[in-house]
Amino acid sequence: MTGHLGADVPIQESDIRALASTYPNFHGARVINYLRLRGLLDARPPSDPCTARARHHATAVTHPSFSAAVHTFIDVLLGQGSTASRARSPKTIENYVAAILDTLEAWIADGLADPREITKKHIEDALDPLRPPPAHRAALLLQSPQARTPVFRDPARTISLTSTRSVPTALPSDRIAGLLDRLDAPRDRLMVALVAIYALLPGQLVHLRRTDLDRSKGRLRLRRAGRLDHVIYLDAFTLRLVTAWELQRHRR
Question: Fewer CB within 10 Å: N-end or C-end of the chain?
Fold first, then answer.
């Protein structure tokens, strides 16, 4: 190594690994460790295995234009794009890249030679067999690799998918009546009702104030740091529990 590269500056770890891979009897790891201990090694930045696999997938794309687009996509996910952005986790990056490979290869097999040739129809055909949640993810991913390359228009910009969101079902008041009968304190009954019927979290209960309750209008305001307050409209059952708590407060 020193005969070819000299010993005046630290030797790059990548050069040692490249030489060691050429001859099976070269113990590159021992040389790297020796030079590291003596400050003579220009160490290679550690590579995350998930990111390395994503890069490998990108390189394996059969057409160079699409391969370059996926590499640019990875750069953006790593926060290394032309504009600053939040870096995603390496596992997320690997999953994103793996999710779009089959679609890209299908487009290449159909004769597409450049990401600029992708049309809205191509994306709609790729999303059509997917159910809503995977379709939303696929729409984002299929848009991103070419949105970060020099395209003149974004073919996914006008695609709109219906969203199916599972909303938690609140417990009806009659279902918790038996539970509330086991509690003696009106305050405890009200807290259980707010959690069971309106899904309030413990942190929200702790920060509730007396002034947040408007009993005449049946409203309860939840304060949220950094966001707009959220208003809950209380049902008649919960309002009766509020009244019982107010009477107890008055008596005390």
Answer: C
pTM for the model stands at 0.47
Can you list the pairs that 197-203 forms with residues at least 24 positions away whose Cβ atoms lie under 8 Å?
A: 197/170, 197/171, 197/172, 197/173, 197/235, 197/237, 197/238, 198/170, 198/232, 198/234, 198/238, 199/168, 199/170
pLDDT tens, residue by residue, 217-236: 889 998 877 778 888 899 88
Contact 139, 124 (CB under 8 A): no
CB burial string 31-48: b at 16+ within 10 A, e below? bbeebeeeeebeeeeeee
The tens digit of pLDDT for each residue in 109-161 reads 989 888 888 887 887 787 777 655 555 555 555 555 444 444 445 666 666 66
How far apart are alpha carbons 191 and 204 in whole angstroms?
11
